[in-house]
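User: I've been trying to design a sequence by hand for this structure and keep getting stuck. Would you show me what you'd pick, starting by listing the structure so we're on the same page?

Assistant: Good idea, let's start from the same input. This is the structure you sent:
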């Protein structure tokens, strides 16, 4: 089988490519140039798509003895991931750009080009497993990336390979060292890859500009502070609210709602953060078919954490497939723009991804 191995320059994708070679596939490595400033250097574990990363990927391909190319997807990445990220924050949402990158870049734009060039599958270093065509959590819970892959369709999953999902990360590093891959000890990337400084608020401020508004007490309606833009806040946030005085009961305040239309950030007590119902659109069912009716599941609303048992029902939102989710145990920190990923509820198949949707409202 002809396999295109996406090589980021990190240890996971290097070992994934190596394992694809070991499996007897005809493997070609490709590094995606996603940054419009590729000459910028990484800062430890921050940033990606630098010249350093491209060089690391090339060296790994040389060790493996496979052809290697660099494809420029920077413009597509800016339009489909960065611009979407900025627009979502401007609208008071909290998006996860990794989902957009997987959905629109790696398993759409890249996979389409791979198919056009005659490749049968795309191999990546994601920590997830495919078992009989079903997407499941990785063996390493701490590194599991099934959440950010839940936006993939059954067709996309059918052309994907995740060679490292069955192995804990420390063993992947040890294997890379045995293979002579120089990235064996390279730090994992953290934060948002296209914000190497790690300062998301400053990045968004430079993109969106000042859009002043008020921080308001959700219970009394009193104005507590001003702000430069709703993009500086997310649901559940406690610090950086700009409030000088404590609440009357002495308890901390949290962001409970964001209204981008009026530039209003509502704050209240921790008890106000609990969510019992989640509405989601852009539903994707990893089997390719929506369940016939309500079903039990476990919903996850953040890449790591934010899980609760729930009942999910496929619905129609003005012609768009959606999901209504009733949570059995209140969840906190649930924000519009996040993904609601549904897993099977039973102990045996609890690592199975059933589907996902983009959160549009909560109660």
């Amino acid at each position: 089988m002809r396999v295109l191995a996406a090589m980021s320059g990190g240890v996971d994708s290097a070992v994934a490519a190596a394992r694809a070679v070991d499996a007897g596939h005809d493997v070609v490595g490709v590094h995606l140039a996603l940054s419009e400033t590729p000459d910028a250097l990484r800062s430890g574990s921050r940033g990606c798509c630098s010249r350093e990363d491209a060089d690391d990927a090339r060296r790994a391909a040389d060790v493996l003895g496979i052809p290697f190319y660099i494809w420029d997807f920077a413009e597509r990445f800016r339009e489909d991931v960065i611009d979407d990220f900025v627009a979502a924050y401007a609208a008071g949402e909290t998006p996860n750009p990794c989902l957009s990158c997987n959905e629109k870049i790696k398993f759409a734009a890249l996979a389409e080009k791979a198919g056009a060039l005659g490749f049968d599958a795309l191999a990546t270093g994601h920590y997830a497993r495919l078992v009989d065509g079903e997407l499941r959590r990785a063996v390493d819970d701490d590194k599991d990336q099934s959440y950010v892959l839940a936006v993939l369709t059954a067709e996309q999953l059918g052309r994907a390979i995740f060679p490292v999902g069955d192995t804990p990360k420390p063993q992947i590093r040890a294997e890379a060292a045995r293979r002579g891959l120089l990235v064996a000890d390279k730090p994992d990337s953290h934060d948002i890859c296209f914000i190497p400084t790690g300062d998301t608020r400053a990045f968004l401020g430079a993109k969106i500009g000042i859009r002043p508004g008020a921080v308001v007490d959700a219970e009394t309606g009193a104005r507590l502070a001003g702000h430069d833009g709703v993009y500086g806040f997310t649901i559940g946030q406690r610090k950086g609210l700009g409030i000088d005085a404590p609440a009357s009961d002495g308890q901390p305040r949290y962001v409970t709602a964001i209204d981008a239309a009026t530039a209003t950030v509502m704050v209240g007590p921790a008890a106000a953060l609990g969510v019992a119902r989640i509405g989601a659109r852009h539903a994707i069912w990893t089997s390719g078919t929506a369940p016939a009716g309500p079903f039990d599941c476990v919903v996850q609303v953040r890449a790591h954490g934010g899980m609760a048992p729930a009942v999910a029902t496929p619905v129609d939102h003005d012609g768009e497939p959606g999901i209504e989710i009733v949570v059995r145990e209140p969840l906190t920190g649930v924000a519009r723009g996040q993904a609601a990923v549904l897993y099977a509820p039973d102990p045996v198949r609890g690592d199975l991804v059933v589907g996902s949707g983009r959160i549009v409202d909560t109660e």
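That's my pick for every position. To get oriented when you compare it with your attempt: Residues 274-362 form a domain with the Elongation Factor Tu (Ef-tu); domain 3 fold (CATH 2.40.30.10). The chain has a mean pLDDT of 93.
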